[in-house]
Amino acid sequence: MPNIAEERAQAWREELRNTMKAKERTSLTRVHMPELDAEYRSHNNEEVNLGLTAEMAMLEAKRCLDCANPTCMEGCPVSIYIPKFVKQIEVGDFLGAAKTLKETSALPAVCGRVCPQEKQCEAQCIHVKMKKQPVAIGHLERFAADYERESGNISVPEVAAPNGIKIAVVGSGPAGLSFAGDMAKFGYDVTVFEALHEIGGVLKYGIPEFRLPNVIVDVEIDNLRAMGVKFVTNCIVGKTITLEDLKEEGFEGMFVGSGAGLPRFMSIKGENFVGVMSSNEYLTRVNLMDAASSESDTPVFKGKHVAVIGGGNTAMDSVRTARRLGADRAMIVYRRSEAEMPARLEEVKHAKEEGIEFMTLRNPIEFIGNEQGRVTHMVLQEMELGQPDTSGRRSPVEIPGRTETIEVDEVIVSVGVSPNPLIPQTVGGLQVSKWGTILVNQDTMQTDIPMLFAGGDIVRGGATVILAMGDGRKAAASMHEWILSKKC
Predict the structure, then answer these.
(1) CA 419 from chain center: how many Å?
(2) Cβ atoms 475, 170 nearer than 8 A
């Protein structure tokens, strides 16, 4: 039987090709996302990016050439049907675009805000090959998802009839939520177990509201609830409840998406002084525990001279948070040059606009404290770039005899994280790497314990939201096949 809806979609897409030639489309200039004023936003927690208007979105959508071979999709870990939703925006079918996004993505409003589109879908856009700016796929994704939410006409993806098979998910971060959404579509009875009191994992505790408002995350989670997904908070799998307990309760499969929440430090002198903390602790306390409030039970120190060690997105989130909490001097200290920073270019741009100081080619070698045990200064070793390392970035090399000492009253260490060790330590027979990550079949995300699948940071050791979501989708498809094979 022909798919009438697809035939109609193809018809109007052909019509669009005829009404506007490719040369006209490629001559259009990429739209610019409106932003809050830098001075204003650096003193509050309002979202920095303001989103596109309908007119801007439709104009940007006209830049899409609707390629016969849409290479943009090859760069999307969750396989969003990009040309289709973009063309729906072009003709004003905004709700249809949102529905298309939800066919493969459980978190379109989130991904439209925090995914590194410039390194993924947009990097594969045909415009890039023509030495032009890519179609703003991320901006359009955000627009469609926001339009649907603001309209109140929120669609719920179609789910199969319940099959009565119970599936457990450990962790409510992007990997777990993506997995849960796809399994619900297959008809499974899905329960997500979260150790903290809020659902969302790193989306809630790790990303500030000026980049990803909590209300956005909550709407996406409510959509999963509408699909039948259940959530249990304040439950630590491996401690509150074990894998054996879950088996006894009738769960036939489990996905581990418990993340990488164990902070790393630098093992240098003075690192135990009061005022030196990990970015995980800092952001979790501020984002999830309202530690910036004067009435908080667990207040966070609001430094005036704050140094953040690292050059990734988490470092940018930390230093921009410190600025908003009143830091007069907020610094990024990074041992390589700015060109080697893994943070998104947009985050670096926003940080600079907000007055963040970038101290590149410097590496802390010692923290100095006062008699009360609080950090007061930091000794920095000047660096230069040597040969590329295994990541392809040039390795930092010390310049002998070149150091400087600067005043600090708070230091936030953001040099990486390690996987949450609880599941690997409490599940007998589970194979892990020397870094503590769970070993899986990369094609299926299945561990050597057949009923247990895993993805996201607990497997990768550190990844983007969208890569974690891609793992969740792959694991869901594989677990579904595995369960079907058992039932045959």
Answers:
(1) 16
(2) no
The sign of the CA dihedral 103, 109, 111, 112 is positive
Entry pTM:
0.92
**The domain that contains 55 carries what CATH number?**
1.10.1060.10
Contact 266, 364 (CB under 8 A): yes
CB 431 within 8 A of CB 256: no
Q: What is the mean pLDDT of the chain?
A: 93
pLDDT for res 1: 41
Distance CA 257, CA 200 (A): 12
Closest CA to 426 of 195, 176, 233, 239: 239
Please check whether residue 176 is in contact with residue 473, taking contact to mean a CB–CB distance below 8 angstroms: no
pLDDT at 486: 82
- Counting the structural domains of the chain, the total is 3
Residues in CB range of 225: below 8 A, 6 or more apart: 231
Structure tokens at 169: 């998910």
Give the tens place of pLDDT for each residue, 174-206. 999 999 999 999 999 999 999 999 999 999 999
pLDDT-based confidence at residue 421 (cuts at 50, 70, 90) = confident
Query: How far is it, in rounded angstroms, from Cα 243 to Cα 256?
Result: 11
267 & 385 share domain: yes
Asked if residue 123 belongs to a domain, the reply is yes
Amino acid letter, residue 57: A
CA 439, 442, 446, 448 torsion-angle sign: negative
Do residues 271 and 213 both lie within one domain?
no
Other C-beta atoms closer than 10 Å to the C-beta of 102 total 26
What is the number of other CB atoms lying within 10 angstroms of the CB of residue 408? 23
Q: Where are the alpha helices (DSSP H) in 198-307?
A: 202-205, 214-226, 243-248, 279-289
d(CA 385, CA 382): 11
| Burial of 138 from C-beta contacts in 10 A (0-12 / 13-18 / 19+) | buried
Q: Mark whether 180 and 104 lie in a shared domain.
A: no
Non-local (6+) Cβ contacts of 142 within 8 A are 49, 51, 52, 108, 109, 112, 113
Tokens 């998406």 sit on residue? 257
Q: In terms of Cα–Cα distance, which of 25, 118, 106, 62 is closest to 313? A: 118
* 241-294: pLDDT as tens digits: 999 999 999 999 999 999 888 889 999 999 999 999 999 999 999 998 888 888
d(CA 33, CA 262): 35
Cβ atoms of 91 and 57 within 8 Å: the answer is no
Whether residues 85 and 125 fall in one domain: yes
The single-letter code of the amino acid at 18 is: N
